[in-house]
Amino acid sequence: MNLARRPLALGLATLAAFAACGVHAQSALDDVMKAKTIRIAIPTDYPPYGFVGTDLQPQGLDIDTARLIAAKLGVKAELVPVTSANRIPYLQTRKADLVISTLGKNPEREKVIDFTYSYSPFFQAVFAPKSLPIRSFADLAGKSVAVTRGAMEDQELSKVIPPGVDVKRFEDNNATIAAFVAGQTQVVATSASVAGNMMAKNPQVGAEYKLLLKDSPNFIGVAKGEDALRGKVNEILADAKKSGELDKMSQKWLGRPAGDLPQ
Questions:
Q1: What is residue 161's three-state secondary structure?
Q2: SS3 category, 249
Q3: 10-residue block means of pLDDT along the chain (263 residues)?
Q4: Which of 7, 108, 184, 222 has its C-alpha lying 20 to 30 A from 237's C-alpha?
């Protein structure tokens, strides 16, 4: 190659690479608008965020959020049921365009997917019967704890539990709660919303809040590099927050407005 022309050639190659990245970044949004359908991964075992109603249709805060975004985009929402363990792989393998499934943001997840602004409040905690004295994480030593594999509470629990805790991991929230209610474990680590639903349905257990694991609002997951889709969803969320739609949905399902949410 002529050395005088080499910088120009390299410059053109760099521009071509940037252009290719730009095309990739726009591909998900372009595909959604062309198909007039957006595939959104949602939970069906996590009331009140996502569960199957008496009509056998998914409902909850995450489902309402998914439908809001689809409506604002002017496309149909194709709801894709997922579990805590497979929701990120579904996004990475393009089985879903977005994940709206009580997804917390942390450095580990930010390495593999991108996040929009947050859309709803959420926190995880440790719950146990009132008769069981638990005032600190040290009190969990020698006790058994049920938790959903791969969920935020699983990750947070691993950071704080002392030696000697028998952690029993289950594949979905229904199995986790069922194990605790049946007495297979003494303690359960889950979200406040799931625990509230559990306590309402099983008053005989006498469960109560014990320890806070993490206060972590929910974000929407987007595949890496899909900046155009992420930007569009951020616009929709910002407008919905300003109009009061996010507060209204949160009030409907959680009994409290969304309040101040991080971007």
A1: coil
A2: helix
A3: 43 42 64 97 91 92 98 98 93 96 92 97 91 96 96 94 96 95 97 85 92 90 96 98 96 84 88
A4: 108
Helical ranges in the chain per DSSP H: 6-35, 61-73, 87-92, 107-110, 152-160, 173-181, 192-201, 227-243, 245-254
Nearest to 188 by CA among 209, 204, 163: 209
**CB-count burial class (<10 Å; 0-12, 13-18, 19+) for 38:** buried
Cβ atoms 61, 40 nearer than 8 A: no
Are 226 and 237 spatial neighbours (Cβ–Cβ below 8 Å)? no
- Distance, in Å, from the CA atom of 84 to the CA atom of 189, rounded to the nearest integer, reads 14
E strands in 12-97: 37-43, 45-46, 50-52, 58-59, 76-82
Cis peptide bond N-terminal to 162, omega within 30: no
For residues 23 and 20, give the distance between their C-alpha atoms in angstroms, rounded to a whole number.
5
Task: For residue 40, give the amino acid letter.
Answer: I
Q: Is 210 helix (H, G, I), strand (E, B) or coil?
A: strand
Taking the CA atoms of residue 80, residue 87, residue 51 and residue 219 in that order, the dihedral angle to the nearest 10 degrees is -110
Residue with tokens 């806070």: 212
Radius of gyration of the chain (CA): 21
